[in-house]
Amino acid sequence: MELDFVFTIAILIMSVVIHEVSHGYVAQMFGDPTARLAGRLTLNPIKHLDPVGSFLVPVATYFLGGFIFGWARPVPYNPYNLSNQRWGTALVAAAGALSNLFIAIVFGLLIRFSDLLGIASEAFVDIASIIVFLNIILAVFNMIPVPPLDGSKVLFSLLPHHLNYIQDFLERYALILIFFLVLFLWRFVLPMVFFLFSLITGVGFSF
Q1: What is the distance between the alpha carbons of residues 34 and 43, in angstroms, rounded to a whole number?
Q2: I need a labelling partner for 159 at 20 to 30 A (CA). Which of 11, 109, 111, 187 fits?
Q3: For the whole model, what pTM was predicted?
């Protein structure tokens, strides 16, 4: 097994763990202790890993498609416990993607100013680039407004009541839409990922 693959899997696992823990912490901030009581407010990956999404799917997509895709077990929360019933669900949902975007920005800026900081080694830039790229993918993909992705919860919080039929439609055909997204629409999302990578790091995409 290639060393790059091992590093990439490790980075993906920690990135999705941070993503899920962020949901739990924001829910806790708004009064919901569900994640804490379930022992999920921890960066210990063992508490969050999903056998299929964290191992089988990433390995399969890497060797069959040349890319890595995966997920962790969702951190539980109870929206009825949130102190802000209007925006609480949207903020909890957005927290995961925002945490990934924050990670991407931090490591992207380290790449951008690596010469100035004296850390411009090829090994550092390669690893940091993987961190930035994977976290941008996680942020962008999860904010697509298709259930069960986080973007759908944000969208549903913003929809006025007279547009509830949109939520009904998306929830009814969620599985079909996800397959359609992964198989056909992802190629239109990737240019946004490449653009954000270049914008944050200041270097062209070179994967």
Answers
A1: 16
A2: 187
A3: 0.88
